[in-house]
């Protein structure tokens, strides 16, 4: 035998080498499986985020349409103010409901977005909540007790809040669209 080894020693060395080679091959296969599992999980998370952002964009679009209605109801503020001055019991009919089911359901998905987008989305929904509270306040007894100027001021405030929230919603829709498909960026 070469190197002065007998058959049994060579058999043991070959067995040990094959054993360690098997361990290395299995480790390589396992690493490949783990890498694939991590890649699959990352892809799944990207898909969840994309679907959430698509749903959020649609929910914001619905809220912007509702804001459009609110804005159109306040377009004739002069006539509404005249109506309010006629009697303290008179109130404008402004209805407003906003939706936040998608936004509230998975805010954790937003964590990967740019901080400005996150802040804008949270601020938008905060504005919707404030606007809803202000509009609901038109039905309170306190609305009858304030001066005509105060009542007009409330309506003008609601009108301005609606316009600002609508603009912010439109901006967020555009930003989410860019996040979902960066090819939507138009060259200046």
Shape: rod-shaped
Q: How many individual helices?
A: 6
Low-confidence stretches: none
Largest sheet: none
Please provide the count of β strands: 0
Order of helices and strands: HHHHHH
Radius of gyration: 32 Å
Describe the model:
There is one protein chain. The protein is mainly α and 188 residues long. It has six helices and no strands. The chain has helices spanning 7-73, 77-86, 101-105, 115-137, 141-145, 148-180. The longest helix has 67 residues, at 7-73. The protein is rod-shaped, with a radius of gyration of 32 Å.
SSE layout and pairings?
Elements: H1 7-73, H2 77-86, H3 101-105, H4 115-137, H5 141-145, H6 148-180
Helix pairs in contact: 1-6, 2-6, 4-6
